[in-house]
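Exercise 7. Given the encoded structure of a 181-residue chain, write a plausible sequence.
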C-alpha cells in the first residue's frame, strides 16, 4: 500500500514566505509615507493659523509680536540663530494671550529636526541699515511629504544682507514681505 504524501515542499514554503515579506515591506513603507503626509498636513494647517494670528496681532497692535532674544531658545545648539522656539510653544504666548489663536500649535514632531520657528528681527538687522519696513520670518521645518505653499520663498531682507533663509521642500520660509495682500 502506497502512502499518500500531502503538504508543501520547501520551495513552495519559501515562495509563500517571500511573497508575504514583500507585501509586508510594501505595507510598512506606504504606512510611513501616510504618516509623513499627515504630519506635514498638520504643519501646513498650523502655519496658516499662525500667519493669520500674526496678521490679526499686527492689525490691532501695529507691530509684529516680539521674539525671544535668547540664542538657542529651542534647546538645540549649533544653529547660531536667536529665535523664538520652544517645545512647549511659549514663543506663541503673545498670540494666545491676546486670543489671536486658541492655543499654541506644536509640531507633530517637536525636536531639533522638525520645528516651527518665528523670527522678528529689527528692520536694520543683518546688515540692512537702510531698511525701515518691519518683517517677520516663520520657518517651518518639515519632512517634505507635502508641497510647500506657493508663498514659501527664499528670503533675503535687503541687498547685501548677511543672511538668507532658503526655502525648499523641507524648509518652508514664510516672510511677511512674501505674503499675498
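Solution.
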Amino acid at each position: 500500500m502506497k502512502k499518500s504524501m500531502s503538504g508543501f515542499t520547501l520551495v513552495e514554503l519559501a515562495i509563500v514566505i517571500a511573497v508575504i515579506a514583500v507585501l509586508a515591506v510594501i505595507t510598512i513603507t506606504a504606512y510611513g509615507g501616510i504618516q509623513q503626509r499627515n504630519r506635514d498636513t498638520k504643519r501646513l494647517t498650523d502655519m496658516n493659523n499662525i500667519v493669520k494670528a500674526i496678521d490679526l496681532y499686527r492689525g490691532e497692535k501695529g507691530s509684529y509680536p516680539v521674539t525671544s532674544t535668547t540664542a538657542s531658545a529651542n534647546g538645540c545648539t549649533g544653529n547660531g540663530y536667536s529665535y523664538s522656539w520652544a517645545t512647549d510653544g511659549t514663543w506663541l504666548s503673545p498670540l494666545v494671550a491676546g486670543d489671536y489663536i486658541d492655543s499654541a500649535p506644536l509640531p507633530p514632531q517637536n525636536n531639533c529636526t522638525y520645528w516651527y520657528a518665528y523670527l522678528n528681527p529689527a528692520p536694520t538687522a543683518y546688515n540692512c541699515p537702510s531698511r525701515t519696513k518691519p518683517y517677520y520670518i516663520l520657518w517651518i521645518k518639515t519632512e517634505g511629504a507635502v508641497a510647500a505653499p506657493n508663498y514659501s520663498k527664499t528670503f533675503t531682507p535687503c541687498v547685501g544682507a548677511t543672511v538668507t533663509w532658503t526655502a525648499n521642500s523641507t524648509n518652508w520660509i514664510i516672510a511677511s514681505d512674501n505674503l499675498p495682500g
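Remark. Residues 11-178 form one domain. Students should compare their own answers with the one above.
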